[in-house]
Write a structure and sequence with these properties.
With 75 residues, this protein is mainly beta. The protein has a domain at 1-36. Helices cover 5% and strands 23% of the residues. The chain has one helix and four strands. The protein has one helix at residues 50-53, and strands at 3-7, 14-18, 26-27, 34-38. A hairpin with a 6-residue loop joins β1 and β2 (14-18). It is elongated, with a radius of gyration of 21 Å.
Length: 75
């Protein structure tokens, strides 16, 4: 289920609601009046090389454990 963002024009409250794509809307949890769905802004990461899209590739990730880059032991 997607997470939608809403704004209540009555009390100016902004909130998120996890609901199905078929849901018709949501009521404000503060004043219980109908709220309006707002456009969400999100970040997208491209997996392409920097010459293709202008984005640089993601840096390599450590393993997170000892000697995997996460423990700080320097190995």
């Amino acid at each position: 289920m997607p997470l939608y963002e809403y704004h209540c024009p009555t009390c100016n409250h902004k909130f998120d609601k996890l609901q199905s794509m078929n849901a018709s809307g949501a009521d404000c949890p503060n004043c219980e009046q109908p709220a309006k769905r707002i456009i969400s802004v999100f970040a997208a990461v491209s997996g392409r090389e920097s010459g293709d899209t202008g984005f640089s590739p993601l840096p390599p990730m450590g393993g997170g454990g000892c000697c995997g880059g996460g423990c700080g032991c320097g190995h």
